[in-house]
Design goal:
The chain has a domain of 121 residues: P-loop containing nucleotide triphosphate hydrolases (Rossmann fold). Helix content is 37%, strand content 23%. The protein is built from 9 helices and 10 strands. Strands 6-7-8-3-9-10 form a 6-stranded mixed beta sheet, sandwiched between helices. Strand 1 and strand 2 form a beta hairpin. Helix 3 packs across helix 4. The radius of gyration is 18 Å and the shape is globular. The structure holds adenosine-5'-diphosphate and magnesium ion. Magnesium ion binds next to helix 1. The site of magnesium ion (MG) has 3 residues, from helix 1.
Length: 252
């Protein structure tokens, strides 16, 4: 059998006495759109931070396409083909949409051509142009990032991640702060993207998750509570309990 895209075993990360990710086993076979849901503080973002190398695990391992990436730097991991967006948005406000994507596209070239530091001018330009269309922000090409709406910044972040030409894209609450219309548009984009690369989506908007994910994984207290197709998860009593038992600011 082919190696799964991602295989996480016994992954654990504590902050002081708080075990944010607690012995997580997770496998991404590849080829479908996955979502991770769970109450606030469940450990979802920490799991992404561990996968992308922004945090190092206390124990456990992460393999990406059969290669152990545990403990590697964020830079090394992104060059291997994992890109992510952040829950707290970070783009270069003073630069145009085009230039923000350009920087990522140019830096991302080293992965495709290991003997070269970066993509050529031509390759970079082509990548930027196709990413503008993939995310549907061509009309914002020359806008300064600092002037974008929150929803458009989220799309720009997705474009920046895609400019690295990843095999696996980790999206952390991509529609947070978006209007219903922007959400609908973004959800359609994500669904389309997931036909070309593997996507794991952290999301608290249930309508979004149940509308697009093929498989939903539910986290609670740092551990995986259950996993399955949306219709199964929707009627799982443990899931309802996890949300009902969550702090009152839980985003359901
Ligand atoms: N860098 C950090 N330092 C200390 N505690 C953290 C840090 N990051 C996350 N936590 C804590 O770990 C738990 C899980 O957080 P997080 O992964 O952000 O949850 P989620 O994304 O599911 O809402 C929370 O209790 C949070 O306060
Ligand atoms: Mg989070």
């Amino acid at each position: 059998m082919a190696e799964p895209v991602l295989r996480i075993s016994g992954l654990t990360k504590a902050f002081g006495g708080l075990v944010a990710v607690d012995g997580v086993d997770y496998e991404l076979p590849g080829g479908d759109l996955r979502a991770i849901i769970g109450p606030n503080g469940a450990g979802k973002t920490t799991l992404f931070n561990l996968i992308s190398g922004m945090l190092s695990a206390d124990s456990g391992s992460i393999a990406f396409r059969g290669r152990d990436i545990t403990g590697r730097s964020p830079h090394a991991i992104s060059r291997m083909g994992i890109a992510r967006t952040l829950q707290v948005k970070s783009v270069f406000n003073g630069l145009s949409v085009h230039d923000n994507i350009w920087i990522a596209a140019h830096a991302g070239g080293g992965r495709l051509h290991p003997l070269r530091a970066a993509r050529s001018y031509r390759e970079t330009a082509d990548t930027v142009e196709s990413v503008l269309d993939e995310v549907g922000i061509r009309d914002l090409r020359n806008e300064q990032a600092g002037n974008l709406s929150y929803g458009d910044i989220a799309l720009l972040e997705m474009a920046i991640a895609l400019a690295m030409r990843p095999n696996l894209l980790l999206l952390d609450e991509p529609v947070a702060g978006m209007s219903p219309e922007e959400t609908q548009n973004t959800v359609a984009r994500i669904k389309e993207l997931s036909r070309q690369l593997d996507v794991i989506l952290i999301e608290h908007d249930m309508e979004v998750v149940f509308g697009i994910a093929d498989v939903i994984t539910v986290m609670n207290n740092g551990a995986i509570l259950c996993e399955g197709p949306p219709d199964e998860i929707a009627k799982d009593a443990r899931v309802q309990e996890a949300y009902l038992g969550a702090p009152e600011d839980a985003e359901i």
